[in-house]
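TICKET: design request
STATUS: open
ATTACHED STRUCTURE:
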């Protein structure tokens, strides 16, 4: 079985995850614009949690990791766009983007479109409430959030104004929750499916997600 190669755009990975990482690169802003360098250890911990969430559902997955966040959790459209291009060149099948920007940037839009044209599936986190974010709102990108109804192996097909799909919001550590982890969980489910069906197209993946969703439609909360 050929391991599924997943692209991660985040804060990096932990030393314990190194054996799963086949390539890594750091993208950082400098006075002259953008620079690339060797990846550093994940100080923020966010990327490590994202990779862990995927691995719990797809134990054989391997990763290419693009480090775009500094230790404050700050990044830019230029860094994310360059990271997406680098990952596409490394022939990842799926890119997990557990991040969101408020502004639409042509550079980021074009990077996503180019990756989709190459057949890469993009999963990006979208908030459960509030304004739309990017890259989740770009055409062809799967909008993913968290769903409190979902257990470890569940996901939901929301088909709502906020998101297309949702999955488990919880990580393994206290305080880990939200759309970022829901996005990673769904990427893990997709990676597990691709391990069994390596030739599945993006449209076939989406059909499978819809057909096997534990829940359909947004969560309905009844007030007091």
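STATUS: resolved
RESOLUTION: sequence designed for all positions
ATTACHED SEQUENCE:
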């Amino acid at each position: 079985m050929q391991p599924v190669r997943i692209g991660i755009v985040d804060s990096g990975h932990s030393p314990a995850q190194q054996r799963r990482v086949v390539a890594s690169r750091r993208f950082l802003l400098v006075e002259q614009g953008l620079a690339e360098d060797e990846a550093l250890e994940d100080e923020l911990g966010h990327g490590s949690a994202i990779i862990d969430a995927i691995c719990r559902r797809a134990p054989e997955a391997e990763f290419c990791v693009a480090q775009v966040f500094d230790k404050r959790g700050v990044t830019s459209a230029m860094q994310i766009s360059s990271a997406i291009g680098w990952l596409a060149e490394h022939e990842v099948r799926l890119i997990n983007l557990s991040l969101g920007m408020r502004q639409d940037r042509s550079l980021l839009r074009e990077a996503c479109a180019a990756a989709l044209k190459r057949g890469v599936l993009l999963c990006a986190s979208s908030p459960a409430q509030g304004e739309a974010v990017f890259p989740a709102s770009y055409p062809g990108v799967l909008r993913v959030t968290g769903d409190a109804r979902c257990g470890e192996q569940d996901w939901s097909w929301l088909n709502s104004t906020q998101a297309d799909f949702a999955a488990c919001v919880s990580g393994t550590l206290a305080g880990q929750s939200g759309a970022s982890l829901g996005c990673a969980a769904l990427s893990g489910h997709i990676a597990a499916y691709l391990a069994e069906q390596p030739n599945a197209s993006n449209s076939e993946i989406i059909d499978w997600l819809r057909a096997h969703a534990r829940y359909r439609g947004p969560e309905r909360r009844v007030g007091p």
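CLOSING REMARK: Strands lie at 5-10, 21-30, 33-37, 62-67, 94-97, 121-125, 142-146, 155-157, 165-167, 215-216. The two ends are 51 Å apart (CA to CA).
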